[in-house]
């Protein structure tokens, strides 16, 4: 489902690009269909950069990224934007909801971007609200919802186009421990019921245990769960 081969990345610093800041070093690993894989590491280890590379928000310095059988390494921004819309859902630590839009509107937005007609959008959005247990809150704005409810809206938005892969960046980082446990159980259930592949970035060992496998990144090197050398 996701295959990373000899992936390295550095950021170019300075006015003339004279300084290179290495972030990731020769990472290789695979994530199989239907797996929940956790990537753990301290802040600054490179795990968020890895997620941005897999997402296509930045391009790798070297190496290959294959997602669902497609080599996306050389995709343009427009090509990757279209690919993401059809293949990848996202869950963020800070939810990334649009505050001026209701829960319903936030969830509906990817359907609008994909050009789905209004009647079909209504049906899919209502079904997705029900799936995440928020059918009573369609007209609530993010500021009117609890942290756990906001994250469920974020998950619903990630689910609404039925992506085969969901990437989660510190998905419980803004939640209390009780809400975190509930959310992790919900992710497990989605994985079991829908066979969605989850790649979860976290610095928390407790959160990492949700995964069927754990990869560990330290100072940009994959030290557990794959071949980085």
Question: Any chance you could write out the topology, listing elements then pairs?
Answer:
Blueprint lengths: L1 E12 L5 E13 L4 E5 L6 H9 L6 E6 L2 E2 L5 H11 E5 L10 H11 L4 H14 L15 H13 L5 E5 L7 H18 L2 E6 L2 H4 L4 E6 L2 E4 L5
Parallel strand pairs: 3-8, 3-9, 6-7, 7-8
Antiparallel strand pairs: 1-2, 1-4, 4-5, 9-10
Short description:
With 229 residues, the chain is α/β, with parallel strands linked by helices.
Plain-language structure description:
- It is a single chain.
- By secondary structure, the chain is of the alpha/beta class.
- The protein has one domain (2-224): P-loop containing nucleotide triphosphate hydrolases (Rossmann fold, 3-Layer(aba) Sandwich), CATH 3.40.50.300.
- It is built from seven helices and ten strands.
- It has helices spanning 47-55, 77-87, 103-113, 118-131, 147-159, 177-194, 205-208, and strands at residues 2-13, 19-31, 36-40, 62-67, 70-71, 88-92, 165-169, 197-202, 213-218, 221-224.
- The protein has a six-stranded mixed β-sheet with strand order 6-7-8-3-9-10. The protein has a four-stranded antiparallel β-sheet with strand order 2-1-4-5, covered by helices on one side.
- Strand 1 (2-13) and strand 2 form a beta hairpin.
- Helix 3 (103-113) crosses helix 4 (118-131) and helix 3 runs parallel beside helix 5 (147-159).
- The longest helix is centred in the last third of the chain and has 18 residues, at 177-194.
- The model has no long low-confidence stretch (mean pLDDT 92).
Strand content: 25-35%
**CATH top level label:** Alpha Beta
CATH homology group: P-loop containing nucleotide triphosphate hydrolases
The CATH architecture comes to: 3-Layer(aba) Sandwich
> What is the succession of H and E elements?
EEEHEEHEHHHEHEHEE
Helical stretch tally: 7
pLDDT average, as an integer? 92
